Amino acid sequence: MPARKRRKTTPAATPAAAAPVTVDRQAAQRSAAEIFAERQQAAKATEREAARVRREAQAREDRRRELTRAKDRAADRLKEVRRRGASGEARAEAEAAYRAALDALIRDEQGLPPLTEEEAEVATAAPQEIEGAEEAVEDR
């Protein structure tokens, strides 16, 4: 003889218990929707921040590349002036341009702000004045 099938006993749901479940379910759905929206906003904010960081890094890299090119051009000009045996004035200008380009590159690598025009003039004039003073002392 085959075995009998047993019925599983389940507690009977009462109509009074069904109403609070619906209200709780709606509250839970609203709560879940709010949590989802908050997570989506947080993810978008994180993505925006990451994009901003990437843009800033790219801008820094582009600025460094341009400053390096400027330094290389100034170094090439200085080498050409020295090779041609140009006048002292042309040589001093080329040297000042190279020093300014190198200083701008170093300041950028160190995270310092670029020099203002006045500071750049003082920085390029100071080495020339020092060299002139040294020559004057040597002549005596």
Structure at a glance:
With 140 residues, the chain is mainly alpha-helical. The chain has helices at 15-84, 88-109, 117-139.
Task: Report on this structure.
This protein has 140 residues and is mostly helical. The protein is built from three helices and no strands. The longest helix has 70 residues. It is rod-shaped and about 120 Å long. The model has no long low-confidence stretch (mean pLDDT 80).
Strand proportion: under 5%
How many angstroms separate the termini? 131 Å
Radius of gyration: 38 Å
Quick check: average pLDDT? Answer: 80
How many H/I helical runs? Answer: 3
Fraction in helix: over 70%
Give unreliable regions as ranges: none
Q: Report on the biggest sheet.
A: none
Give the helix/strand class.
Answer: mainly alpha
Shape, principal axes of CA atoms: rod-shaped
**Number of DSSP strands?**
0
Sequence of secondary-structure elements: HHH
Q: What descriptors fit this protein?
A:
mainly alpha, 140 residues, 82% helix
